[in-house]
Amino acid sequence: MKRIISITLTALFASAVLFAGGSGETGKTGKTVINYYTWEALEDSNPIIEQFNRENPDIEVVLHIVPDNPDTQVKLDVMMMGSSDIDVVQIADGQQFAKAKNGLLRNIDDYIRRDGIDMKANFGGAEEWAKFEGSYYVYPRHNSVGCVFYNKTMFDSLGIPYPKDDWTYAEYIALAERLTHGSGSNKVYGTFNHIRPGFWCLTALQKADFYTSDGMANINAEPFVNDLRNRMHLDSSGYEKNYSEIIATNTLQNIEFFNKKCAMVMAASWMVRDMKNKEKYPYDFEVGVAHFPRYDGTIAPKTSWGSVSALAIPTTSKNPDAAWRFIRYYIEKGSLEIAKTGTVPVYLPAYNREMIAAFGEGSGLPQGDIEKFFDPEIVSIMKMPVGEAMNEYNSIIQEETSLFFTNAKSLEQTVRDMKSRVDKAILDERSQKK
């Protein structure tokens, strides 16, 4: 049984109340009903859910798809805080850390110990995304592997060699300049970099951490300052669509790239999903994939960023044991189905040639580029602060950098204000713990 629901912003709190009663321990059939909430529209055709229901006659998983937009995580938070009927919820982009900190997710250490699960062996580098303050709160589903997609046809027409996998950020900027051409409505930018949190500092994080050794803000470190300077240079020089234009047009990486408005795009493996959807994105050029550029020559090649999506059990779930059974089944037996959608699964025991082929099938990418997303040598970095006052840290960074990129503040003032505001938030949190 599958059910799709829509929740509007104006109905957020009404939704929390609506679902507050939950479905109870069992449904009308006597089965334990597990309500699985996600924003992945393709889950509606994922056979793993029906397969689980067939093989587990005492449980019925019911799928709920919440519309995917910038408010999705807020909607889910409100519903969980309202004691809704959510038993399993998908979480992405590091939101699990804030949700765990705010008490929205069930600690699953007891299940992992009971089942004798080796999280590091199962998930490799993605394992760190599963825990907060030493405890596990989620079971990793898939990873968005950061990379650069480029229009090979455009490179060829301009006589420019393709980027190499060991390139640096300086080489990336130089290529963006060479690739920019045309004017007005016919202008093609060399690259596109989104305004989402963390995107401006992706190479800085190869060189510096968000926190100093004593736990204070490190956002004033030179790598962060340099990445701010470089993003502003790309914007002001017209080598990429600037920050204000992106806000005004509400555009995205896939829109700009597939419409041939940029030659390169800083994105992630989810672009492969879009490449497979030729009806929605009917592009007519060859695409190449390069590993993410290095901050400088001191950084090893293939140092990228990741963003792990996971499944979790809300603390308000009335059926955590059954929810855990479904989560394990889904992750450990569903990797092939996840890969078919153009998404990189992170359950390592399921890796094989069939799964990798399924990931790239229909994308048009050459085999060598497909395999880059599964390269065991990739070092994945986290593009958000995780530690003291991390919610405030994230908000402050976004507020202050937005002012800088829209020319409302100088670089120097932006860095000073980020540092002082985050340090204060950290000290305030420490004082509240005493």
TrEMBL record:
Subcellular location per the Swiss-Prot or TrEMBL entry: Periplasm
Keyword Signal: yes
First-listed, main subcellular location of the protein, grouped into a coarse class: periplasm
Keyword Signal: yes
GO cellular component, one term: periplasmic space
A Pfam family annotated for this UniProt entry: SBP_bac_1
Signal peptide feature range: 1-20
Xref: Gene3D superfamilies: Periplasmic binding protein-like II
Keywords: Signal
Recorded superkingdom: Bacteria
UniProt record similarity statement: Belongs to the bacterial solute-binding protein 1 family.
UniProt name for this protein: Extracellular solute-binding protein
